[in-house]
Design a protein that fits this description.
85 residues, 95% helix
Length: 85
């Protein structure tokens, strides 16, 4: 094998190695993007759930504030639960 053949062969190996390395990098990037999207989707769902919980508590609070007897009963039950631990 002469020098030219060795150079050509070496360049072919280098190109193949770079191509393989880039293919792995692209695959890892794609996997990371999918995982990132899953995390974002989970975050968005958790935020929506939290907003629904907040709205529920706000509704319950309005009910308690609208009726003095309910409010007093709530405070009584709350105090009892705190005492019991």
């Amino acid at each position: 094998m002469n020098t030219t053949d060795k150079v050509i062969n070496n360049l072919g190996v280098q190109i193949a190695n770079k191509s393989i390395s880039e293919a792995f990098s692209l695959a890892e990037r794609d996997e990371a993007l999918v995982e990132l999207q899953q995390v974002r989707d989970e975050r968005d769902k958790a935020l929506a759930d939290l907003e629904n919980i907040k709205l529920g508590f706000e509704g319950m609070n309005k009910i308690l504030q609208s009726d003095e007897r309910l409010k007093n009963l709530y405070e009584e039950v709350k105090a009892k639960q705190i005492e019991e631990g």
